[in-house]
Recover the amino acids of this structure.
C-alpha cells in the first residue's frame, strides 16, 4: 500500500488538441551536458536549485532538495540516457530531436494546490513541456518523484497522451517506472554512481493477485487496478519466457509502434510486436507466472513469499467429487485471471477445464528449490509432483482482443468467464 495520498494525474482532456505525431527522424544533434533553464514553464517564481537536467523550486529543506535532485538525475540517467526514453527536456513540437533542451521544472507546492495528492505531473501545453508539483515532505521520495517523472517521460513520448484507450495505462506506466527505479537492477548503475539506495518493490499483491479476476487494466474510479497492474509491464520487459518481440524495450516499442491517433488499446500495439506467439498466450503465461510471482523480479517475489498467506484466492465453489465452478463475482473478466492454489492429495494432479469462452489455463508447479515449471492445460492436463512440490491452476479469460475504454468498462469486457474444473489428485 502507498503510505502517501493517491498520486493523481491531470485529465487527459488537458492534452486534447495537442496531439502531434512522434517524429520519424533520428537524433541529428547531441543533447548538451546541461539543459537550458526555462522558468516560464509553471511560473518560475521563487528560489531554486539547479542540476544539469532539472530546476527545483522553493524547497525549504536544503538537504531534501539536494536528495531530490540526485534522485531525479539518477532517473534521467537511467531512463533517458541508458534506456532511451525521449527526454522530457524536449518540447512536444520538437522534431528530429534537435533541441532546444530544457530543464524539467519541479515546484514544491502546498497541499491546497494538489488536493489529495503527494505529487502531480502537469504541463504547459503551449511550451509542450511537462513539469511537476510535489509536496515538500515527498520531494525526495522516488515513489513520488520518479513516478511523476515517469509521467513526464510518457508525455514526452507523445503517442499515447491524447488517446483515451491508452490513457488508462498512464498510472500503470508511472508505477512501473517508479518500481523499476527503486526495486530492480535496471537503475542500479545510476543509483550507485549517485550513492543512492534501492528499496522494496511497490507491488500491491492484495490487489494484483487478490483481485486478479478484474480486467487486466481497469481504471474504474475507486475499484480499478490501473495503479497496480504494472507487473504485466515487468513481465513483458523481463521476458522470462523469451518470446520474440518482448524484452527490455517492450514498453517503448508499444508506444513508438502505436498506430498513431487510432485510439487502439496498448494490447493491440503489443500484439503487433509479437511473433511466433499470440497475445493470448503471453497474457496466459503472465498470469501463470503470477501464481508464484515468477516474472523476473526478485524483490516482488520476495514480498509475495512473505504475504502469500494473507492473499485472497476464494475463486471457486465446490460441487463435490473434485468438481468446482468459478464464483460469479470472481469469474475472470477480460484478460483477467483466477489463480487457484491446489492442495495435493496424490503425486499426480490432473485437471479438466470446461468453459463457455476462450481461455488459457496453466498448471504452475513449484519445487522446494523455488524452481517453477509450467504445464499448459489444453482442455486437460496432468502433472506428476515430486516430494516438496506444490501446484496452482491458473485460468485466464483470453478472447480475441477488443477495443475497450478502461475508464468506462463495457459489458463485453466486464463479462466473466464461466468455467468449471474437475480435479483429481488435488483439492482447490
Ligand atoms: C476464440 O478463439 C478463436 C481462435 O483463436 C477466435 O477465432 C475467436 O474469435 C475467439 N472468440 C472470442 C469470443 O474471442
Amino acid at each position: 500500500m502507498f503510505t502517501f495520498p493517491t498520486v493523481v494525474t491531470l485529465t487527459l482532456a488537458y492534452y486534447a488538441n495537442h496531439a502531434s505525431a512522434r517524429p520519424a527522424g533520428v537524433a541529428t544533434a547531441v543533447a548538451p551536458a546541461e539543459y537550458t533553464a526555462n522558468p516560464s514553464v509553471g511560473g518560475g517564481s521563487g528560489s531554486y536549485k539547479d542540476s544539469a537536467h532539472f530546476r527545483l523550486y522553493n524547497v525549504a529543506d536544503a538537504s531534501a532538495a539536494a536528495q531530490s535532485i540526485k534522485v531525479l538525475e539518477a532517473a534521467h540517467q537511467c531512463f533517458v540516457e541508458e534506456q532511451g526514453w525521449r527526454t522530457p527536456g524536449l518540447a512536444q513540437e520538437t522534431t528530429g530531436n534537435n533541441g532546444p533542451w530544457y530543464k524539467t521544472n519541479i515546484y514544491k507546492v502546498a497541499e491546497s494546490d494538489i488536493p489529495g495528492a503527494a505529487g502531480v505531473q502537469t504541463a504547459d501545453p503551449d511550451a509542450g513541456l511537462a513539469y511537476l508539483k510535489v509536496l515538500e515532505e515527498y520531494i525526495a521520495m522516488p515513489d513520488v518523484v520518479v513516478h511523476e517523472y515517469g509521467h513526464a517521460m510518457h508525455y514526452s513520448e507523445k503517442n499515447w497522451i491524447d488517446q483515451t484507450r491508452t490513457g488508462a495505462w498512464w498510472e500503470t506506466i508511472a508505477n512501473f517506472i517508479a518500481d523499476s527505479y527503486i526495486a530492480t537492477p535496471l537503475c542500479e548503475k545510476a543509483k550507485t554512481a549517485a550513492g543512492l539506495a534501492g528499496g522494496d518493490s511497490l507491488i500491491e499483491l492484495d490487489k494484483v493477485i487478490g483481485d486478479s479476476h478484474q480486467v487486466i487494466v481497469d481504471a474504474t474510479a475507486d475499484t480499478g487496478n490501473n495503479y497496480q497492474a504494472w507487473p504485466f509491464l515487468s513481465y513483458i520487459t523481463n521476458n522470462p519466457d523469451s518470446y520474440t518481440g518482448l524484452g527490455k524495450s517492450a514498453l517503448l516499442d508499444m508506444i513508438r509502434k502505436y498506430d498513431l491517433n487510432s485510439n487502439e488499446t496498448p494490447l493491440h500495439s503489443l500484439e503487433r510486436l509479437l511473433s511466433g506467439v499470440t497475445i493470448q498466450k503471453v497474457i496466459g503465461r503472465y498470469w501463470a507466472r503470477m501464481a508464484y510471482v515468477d516474472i523476473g523480479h526478485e524483490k516482488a517475489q520476495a514480498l509475495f513469499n512473505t504475504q502469500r498467506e494473507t492473499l485472497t484466492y476464494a475463486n471457486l465453489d465446490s460441487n463435490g467429487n473434485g468438481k468446482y465452478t468459478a464464483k460469479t463475482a470472481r469469474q475472470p473478466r477480460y484478460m483477467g485471471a483466477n489463480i487457484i492454489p491446489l492442495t495435493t492429495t496424490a503425486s499426480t494432479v490432473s485437471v479438466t477445464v470446461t468453459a463457455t469462452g476462450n481461455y488459457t489455463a496453466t498448471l504452475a508447479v513449484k519445487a522446494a528449490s523455488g524452481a517453477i515449471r509450467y504445464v499448459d492445460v489444453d482442455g486437460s492436463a496432468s502433472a506428476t509432483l515430486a516430494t516438496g512440490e506444490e501446484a496452482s491452476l491458473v485460468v485466464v479469460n483470453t478472447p480475441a482482443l477488443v477495443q475497450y475504454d478502461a475508464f468506462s468498462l463495457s459489458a463485453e469486457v466486464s463479462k466473466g468467464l464461466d468455467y468449471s474444473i474437475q480435479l483429481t489428485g488435488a483439492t482447490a
Remarks:
- The chain has twelve helices and 16 strands.
- Residues 1-27 have pLDDT under 50 and may be disordered.
